[in-house]
Amino acid sequence: MEIIYIVLIVTAFLGISGGYVFYSKRKDSPQENNKESPKPAEQEKKSPAVQIDVDKESVVIEARSKAKDIVFEAKESALDIQSKAQDQARKIKEEALEAERKAALFKAQVDAKAKELESKAKSLVSIKENLEKKQEEIENFHKKQQEEIEKIASMSKEEAREIILKNLDKNLVEEKGKRIREKEEEIRKESEEMAKQILMEALEFGSTDIVIEHSTSKVKLPDEELKGRIIGKEGRNIRTFEELTGADLDLDSSPGDIIVSCFDSVRRAVATAALERLVADGRIQPARIEEIVDQTKKEMDSIMYKAGDSLCHKLGLYNIPRELIQILGRFKYRFSYGQNMLEHTMETARIGVYIAEEIGADIETVKLGCVFHDIGKVLTDQDGSHVELGVELLRKYKIPEEAIKCVGEHHDDRQSTIESAIVTLADHVSGARPGSRGEDYESYVKRLKDLEEAAMSFDGVEKAYAVSAGREVRVFVKPEKVDDYSTALLAKDIARKIELEQNYPGVVKVIVIRETRVSETAK
User: Fold this and answer.
1) Got the DSSP string for 166-191?
2) Nearest partner of 266 among 211, 345, 341, 344, judged by Cα
3) Hey, how many other C-beta atoms are within 10 angstroms of the C-beta on 395?
């Protein structure tokens, strides 16, 4: 503080001195001397001496005022500096106290830990000594017990050891048997879990997107006016088309589409393809309809062969006889409970191959067994179960016997080879997985076929088609054998046979159609 006051006094002195010097220089300046002299009247009023005294006094007053201002500012600055210094000193002091407190706390903790460790070390030494004493006591006691046992048992140590070892061997045998049973149970559980995992992975790997097939297909129309041309004059065109294809056309249910309905997938495919060609051609008349339908039926064999060849190519099966490939192609238009047989065969083969790879079975045998396991289902012109028909067909074309065994056993409860078991499992997985099949479709198809067979059993019937989901049977008769008067009686007989022999929901309408066409060629 004394230094600050000294600084303030020196500053004030310098201010006063500066003011005096300033006044002296101003008085002696030539510019002041060269100024115009005051007017005589002013000289008369003030003498030179009085003027000088007045100027000195004003300068001194001004200098004192500046000195006071400087001293005041210096005091404020000094107070500000002093306040900041005090704050900083207080902060440093607080930090030092806090650091000292933490150091003291840490030291106390370290001292406590050191005392604890020292106590534990002493305790461990004591425990070690006690253990050594106990060990020594136990050894002495063991020696005494051994000596007493030898005296009581009247046998040596080696003899007692022999008896103990025999008992130990017996216990070990029992323990070994127990361990073996435990291991067998553990292996069984692990194998079940592994089998489930393999099946899940095989299903995920081999499953395909299968939509249950129904008995209808759609044909897009570029123009609604085409429906009138398809119907024809007095329904002549649509009647001809339905007679030739055995399919039913629905032109009213879906705007812009024609729904082709038929339970027989081959007939429906022929009708759909023929109708698409007629729509594209534009010439819709009975003669053109008959030509297109006949041409489509002839091309169906080529389409089915391509389907069978594509199936074999996708699965990597080569050197398959052409006849077998043609028969496999029929899977394209064959369904089992609504599941397309071509897709089912592909899925079964992929699942079977995956399982065979996982467990090390013969992949080629499994692949052939999966591809041909249902081939007997398309041999509709022969009598017998599809398993027996398939085995006979494969032997005819000299397919390996191991693969034939897989086909013959895929519906048995027991299989003779691991490959046969894999084919059976893959077939069950593909058919039983959720969403793959519709349970009532097979019985539905059988009911419609029974309706057609009942109508075909009468003499003079040329063709019979079940349409409208089995609610209607259209019967086409040979005009040279059935006249117009006999058609009514034939319709009643067919309806009566259906009533007596078959079960069906609702009613079945029987329509007998007799048509005579005569054509000549002009040369």
Assistant:
1) HHHHHHHHHHHHHHHHHHHHHHHHHH
2) 341
3) 12
The fold of 444-513 is GMP Synthetase; Chain A, domain 3 (3.30.300)
> Longest C-alpha distance within the chain, in Å?
173
Nearest to 368 by CA among 404, 334, 392: 404
Segment holding 366, helix H or strand E? helix 363-372
Distance CA 16, CA 61 (A): 9
Q: Is 234 left (phi over 0), alpha (psi -120 to 50) or beta?
A: left
Residues 231/235/236/242 CA torsion (nearest 10 deg): 70
Q: Cα(208)–Cα(212) distance, rounded to whole angstroms? A: 12
User: Which residues belong to CATH 3.30.1370.10 in the chain?
Assistant: 211-315
Give the torsion through C-alpha atoms of 187, 189, 195, 201, to 10 deg: -120
pLDDT at 211: 42
Q: What single letter denotes the amino acid at residue 123? A: S
- At 67, list the tokens: 């000195």
**What is the amino acid identity at position 72?**
F
According to CATH, the topology of domain 211-315 is Ribosomal Protein S8; Chain: A, domain 1 (3.30.1370)
Residues of the chain with CATH 3.30.300.20: 444-513
> Would you state the structure tokens that stand for residue 254, as one six-digit string?
């879906």
Run means of pLDDT, 10 residues per run, the chain, 523 residues: 55 58 51 43 48 72 84 85 88 90 90 88 88 88 77 68 75 76 76 64 52 64 81 84 83 80 78 87 86 86 86 88 88 74 86 86 90 83 78 90 89 84 85 54 71 88 80 85 84 87 76 78 70
